[in-house]
Amino acid sequence: MTAPLLEVRDLATFYDQSQVLFGVDLVVAAGEVVTLMGRNGMGKTTTLRSIMGLKRAARGSVRFLSRELRGLAAFRIARAGIAIVPEGRQVFPNLTVRENLAVAFAAPAQAPAPWTPRRIFDLFPRLAERSGNMGFQLSGGEQQMLAIGRALVTNPRLLLLDEATEGLAPLMRDEIWRCLETLKAAGQAILVVDKNIDALLRIADRHAIIEKGRIVWTGSSMQLAAEPDVQQRYLGV
After folding, report:
1. Number of domains making up the chain
2. pTM above 0.85, yes or no
3. DSSP structural state of residue 90
4. Are the CB atoms for 190 and 158 separated by under 8 Å?
5. With 90 as the cut, is the pLDDT of residue 1 above it?
6. What is the H or E stretch that residue 142 is in?
7. Nearest Cα to Cα of residue 215 among 54, 19, 8, 16
8. CA atoms within 13 A on the CB side of 71
9. Does a structural domain hold residue 172?
10. Read out DSSP for 20-85?
């Protein structure tokens, strides 16, 4: 692994008096795809929200490009180079596909090939066909494509995806995995939450498993595939 792009250490987060994260440690290197896996209610979404500043962590460190981000407002973290595709997609329902992309577009200075709405349409031809449709007129899979596209046009160094394919039809899930493979090949760093173990083993470089707010296992795809007992203990239904 190269030098960390994102380094999370001893992260603790509460909802009112209830502690959800208990000292989470997590690292993502530049160009790396890392998963955060675990059963429902174990702290995956809270971890992503704490990194992004959408939920203020009570303790710990979130360093990105060697800069401490914990305590910053979410918009400042976004400007630092992190984008999130939230659970439930949350596209703007009364804006068209093109408008959803336009309001988020921010080309970095001197970027050789920034993500633009046109490039998003190349990545997701289905969105190009529906560029004039309102957000609420899209299927769940199309909304997820749009949510990914909206995050990408901010031209982030790190992309966070929460429940990347949850609730999508098989063909739409395949399209999302194809997209992530394309992004990985282009060197995009990604931290992804999803339940499709087979797809994650194929795409990701490393995995972290969270159980009751603590990271209980980390390793490569080869290591996780070789440990079915770990999968059953922490990921089985």
Report:
1. 1
2. yes
3. -
4. yes
5. no
6. helix 140-152
7. 8
8. 6
9. no
10. EEEEEEEEEETT-EEEEE-STTSSHHHHHHHHHTSS--SEEEEEETTEE-TTS-HHHHHHHTEEEE
**pLDDT given at position 89:** 84
- 169 within domain boundaries: no
Q: How far is CA 27 from CA 35, 73, 206, in A?
A: 10, 21, 10
Considering the domain boundaries, does residue 95 fall inside one? no
Digit-coded pLDDT (tens) for 108-139: 656 677 899 999 999 999 999 999 999 999 99
Token pair belonging to 24: 């989470």
Q: What is the dihedral of CA 39, 214, 86, 124, to 10 degrees?
A: -70
* Structural domain for 232, as ranges: 1-80+192-237
Q: Where are the beta strands (DSSP E) in the chain?
A: 4-15, 18-29, 33-37, 59-64, 67-68, 82-85, 158-161, 189-192, 206-211, 214-220
Is 142 within the bounds of a domain?
no
Rounded to 5 degrees, φ, ψ at 235 are -120, -15
Express each pLDDT in 184-234 by its tens digit.
999 999 999 999 999 999 999 999 999 999 999 999 999 999 999 999 999
Question: Which DSSP symbol is given to 211?
Answer: E
Q: How confident is the model at residue 96 (pLDDT cuts 50, 70, 90)?
A: very high
Token reading at 159: 């992309």
CATH code where residue 46 lies: 3.40.50.300
| Residue 89 φ then ψ, to 5° | 75, -55
